[in-house]
Design a protein that fits this description.
It is a single chain. The protein is α/β, with parallel strands linked by helices and 261 residues long. It folds into two domains: 178 residues, P-loop containing nucleotide triphosphate hydrolases (Rossmann fold, 3-Layer(aba) Sandwich); 62 residues, no CATH class. Helices cover 37% and strands 25% of the residues. It has eight helices and nine strands. The chain has a six-stranded mixed β-sheet, sandwiched between helices. Strands 2-1-4 form a three-stranded antiparallel β-sheet. α3 packs across α4, α3 packs parallel to α5 and α4 packs across α5. The chain is globular and about 50 Å long.
């Protein structure tokens, strides 16, 4: 699974937004290394810079200080080489395109052959258990199914790195549990490197190999917790002592972050 290769290397990242009300210090002294095959959850209070840090990795924000590499390249080079897939909070599907049409869109932009577009669309729909829904439109699908299409679309061009910004946050608890379990199985199969933003302690504990705990603004990394859980996981595991202890450790880190000076 993991060969030790570093997918993301961030050193002393600082980012200050200039606003009409004055500067906002979003990230401060961020040091983070993410290895191939890691499933990293970023967790912290609202406004702590979780999404901003992910956007820096994706070259959607430029830091004011520090250095960051993605697959040994600058974030801009990685973006131009399509080294990552990005899954947003909302599915962001085009309602006038079928499921297959939405999946093909990035491949069309990349100039991929039409036969290959169809093959990849079928392949990723199988991965997210939506085979047979190719001709459906987004409005014909539930919220959870739409989000699975969004994940499938991010997989069509075979990125090694998946950036996921609270992809299950807007879903009800039952659907969220189902998608947590499903996505963990998908990660077991593919061992993609994943950076996952969440506000949910149980979600971070269940999905991750490492949990990165961030403080309130300016966002700092105050703890990186290695998960002791086995790779194969079921939702029943959340009732085990090991899981409860991991959740408590994350909770303590978040409390410590709020008193961070």
């Amino acid at each position: 699974m993991k060969d030790g290769a570093l997918v993301v290397e961030a050193h002393k990242i600082d980012l200050v937004f200039q606003t009409a009300d004055g500067p906002v210090h979003a990230l401060s002294e961020i040091d983070l290394e993410i290895k191939k095959g890691d499933f990293i959850s970023l967790i912290g209070p609202s406004g702590c810079g979780k999404t901003t840090l992910m956007r820096v990795i994706a070259d959607l924000e430029k830091p004011n200080g520090g250095e960051i590499k993605v697959n040994g390249m600058t974030p801009e080079e990685a973006r131009l080489q399509r080294a990552y897939g990005y899954v947003f909070q909302a599915p962001v599907l085009y309602p006038w395109r079928t499921v297959e049409g939405n999946l093909k869109l990035p491949l069309e932009i990349m100039g991929i052959d039409k036969t290959e577009q169809v093959r990849r669309s079928k392949e990723v729909l199988e991965m997210v258990d939506l085979s047979g829904f190719e001709k459906k439109f987004p409005w014909q699908l539930s919220g959870g199914m739409q989000q699975r299409v969004s994940i499938a679309r991010a997989l069509t061009f075979y990125p090694d790195l998946l950036l996921m910004d609270e992809p299950f946050g807007a879903l009800d608890e039952i659907v969220r549990d189902q998608l947590n379990e499903h996505f963990h199985r998908l990660w077991e199969q593919t061992h993609k490197t994943v950076v996952f933003v969440t506000h949910s302690i149980p979600e971070a504990a269940y999905l991750s190999t490492k949990i990165v705990v961030m403080s309130p603004r300016p966002g700092k990394i105050i703890d990186i917790i290695e998960s002791p859980l086995p790779e194969k996981r079921t939702l029943d595991m959340r009732d085990t002592q090991e899981f409860l202890e991991l959740s408590q450790k994350i909770r303590k880190g978040l409390r410590a972050g709020h008193s961070y000076d």
